[in-house]
Amino acid sequence: MSSKRPQPYFSRSQVTLVRGLWMLVTAVLAFMTLFPLLWMVSIGFKPAAESFSSNLIPQSPTLDNFVYVLTGVPFLRYMANSFLVSATVTIVALFFHTMAGYALARLRFPGREVMFLSIFSTFLVSLPVIIVPLFVIVKAMGMLNSYAGLIIPAIFNAFGIFLLRQYYLSLPKEIEEAARIDGAGYWRIYWSVILPLSRPIMSALAILFFLANWNPFLWPLTITSDPNLWVVQLGIANFKSQYSASWNYMMAASTIVAIPTLILFVIFQRQIMDSLKTSGLK
Amino acid sequence: MTTIAETAARRRHAGRTRLSAKHREWIAGYLFVLPDALGLFVFLGVPMALSLVLSVFEVNGFGGYSFVGAKNYLRMWNDPLFWKGARVTALYAVMLVPLLYVCGLGLALLVQRTDRFNAVMRSMFFAPHMVSLVVVALVWQFMVVDKIGVISKLTAALDIGGFSFLGDPNFALITIVLVSVWFLMGFYMLIFLGGLQDIPRQYYEAAMIDGAGPIARFRFITLPLLKPTSFFVIMVSMVAAVAGAQAFDIIYVMTKGGPANATSVLIVYIYQQAFGFGAFGYAAAMASILVVALMIVTAVFFALTRGGRFHHEQ
């Protein structure tokens, strides 16, 4: 295809040169973008005395920082809390959002458009803006310092419903009609037709939801004072106040927390990037 | 031969089943939407309304609420730190939105070709977005520590240093903006890539045959056809900047609003008032102003995009 494209300005070798330079610039920028993350990992492997040296490769690499983070503080407990919260939110949110998305896209009922509009109107309201009244509500419901307080409010967001609705709008009508002729009810159609068809978008959303709930800081900071309920982000932030000079521990802890999400990203990058790139904008 | 009565009965019956099928669909629709609708109502709708209610109350020492009318709003009007917060928020948005636009679009154009090299590069540009903001804030804070952080050393070596990234009120907000850009640019790159993908290749090929250079092609094809995407990016990044979606975590960890309130965006100031001083009513009053502003922005956004469907204009 590229050979057929007209090239009115450059000869073939010039094109190769330009492309080579282009790739070089891209690679340099990409390295600069990744540098802070590489630096984080590097410090994680450096002993305390070396943490402010300017070499990217540690001179005397050590695992001590990681060992300390995992054994010296209840970091594994924080990781388990984060995992529990993220996994529960992801599963419940996917269940509710596919239901709502299906109804809003495929079923006809009065007030549907109004409902969708109301849901969409919360799209851009972010947590910091409503955190004070949300705190008051969650407190009134007796969910401060509880897993319920960490999990339940995080389930509901317009983004997932919106993406799923857009996806269901694009499914062909015939699939449902065939099921209906066979006498399937709405629940049956949702469960055995719509859900299996949603597998690609659900896996993308599952990763997005999991990541989004692995990373929050503000909400857990606000509603949990019991260290047994701390999620990893609080654990790391607390490292800073406890050991203000121990950057090597902090970077090791940061590495431990960043690694699961980066691994997920490397495995599922195609789905993540495709779902973000296309679904939201069409 | 059927009697009139039989036909009438059949019609009635048909009418009734059609009606009840319709009602069944209604009920199913409501039940399917119910869990999410209820959850969004309780944890988003009610808080937005409650913000307004709380804003006319004051929390007294024992956690009781007393009605104070417009007192919180008056206090806001006379509070220089509120106005400082509003100014810092505006400044943050004014720096962040154009920078994100340029970086997002620039990166998208850079890695637009679909080949393996560009796929790897895209992932590298997106990777920061996979890390939590607390980690982002800590890593950057560590790199710009006065004199000994790796970037401080670098800028000093290049002789553009001498200043403190986070300790100098003139630089702290810029540092926060740059860290935010670093975190967000990969995400906006993806949005732009989606937009670029929708531009038909033939336009470029036709323009090249007509002798249009890369700059002309960008100016007369890419930019105009990217209008819906640009619009989306500008709106979303502006709302995020004002609402402090990313700014909060970064600022809370890196500067706590300092030095001299130079990075105290409204959302950080609101948080300090509420959870630092227990001034829930006052914080709610400030948040209400933000909620109203965001609702207006969202409504305009919705109207302009015709229900959130971002089609190209015909």
Automatic annotation (TrEMBL), chain A:
Write down the CDD domains for this protein, in alphabetical order.
Answer: TM_PBP2
Q: Which UniProt keywords apply?
A: Cell membrane, Membrane, Plasmid, Transmembrane, Transmembrane helix, Transport
Do you know which InterPro entries this protein is assigned to?
Answer: MetI-like (IPR000515), MetI-like_sf (IPR035906)
**Main location per the UniProt record:** membrane
What PROSITE patterns does this protein's entry cite? ABC_TM1 (PS50928)
Where in this chain does the record put each ABC transmembrane type-1 domain? 79-268
Q: Write down the membrane topology.
A: Multi-pass membrane protein
Q: Name the source's superkingdom.
A: Bacteria
Which spans are transmembrane here?
Answer: 21-45, 83-104, 116-138, 144-168, 189-212, 249-268
The subcellular localization recorded is: Cell membrane
- Family statement: Belongs to the binding-protein-dependent transport system permease family.
Q: Which PANTHER family match?
A: ABC TRANSPORTER PERMEASE PROTEIN MG189-RELATED, ABC TRANSPORTER PERMEASE PROTEIN MG189-RELATED-RELATED
Q: What is this protein called?
A: Carbohydrate ABC transporter permease
Species of origin reads Sinorhizobium chiapasense
UniProtKB/TrEMBL annotation, chain B:
- TM segments? 26-57, 90-111, 123-143, 171-193, 231-254, 274-304
What membrane topology term does the record carry? Multi-pass membrane protein
Location(s), subcellular? Cell membrane
Predominant location: membrane
The segment(s) forming the ABC transmembrane type-1 domain are 86-301
Please give the PROSITE patterns that the UniProt record associates with this protein. Answer: ABC_TM1
Recorded hits in InterPro entries, A to Z, give: ABC_transporter_permease, MetI-like, MetI-like_sf
Cross-referenced CDD domains: TM_PBP2
List UniProt keywords, sorted A-Z. Cell membrane, Membrane, Plasmid, Transmembrane, Transmembrane helix, Transport
Superkingdom, taxonomy of origin: Bacteria
The record's family statement is:
Belongs to the binding-protein-dependent transport system permease family.
Checking PANTHER family in the record gives: ABC TRANSPORTER PERMEASE PROTEIN, DIACETYLCHITOBIOSE UPTAKE SYSTEM PERMEASE PROTEIN NGCF
The protein, known as:
Sugar ABC transporter permease
Species of the source: Sinorhizobium chiapasense
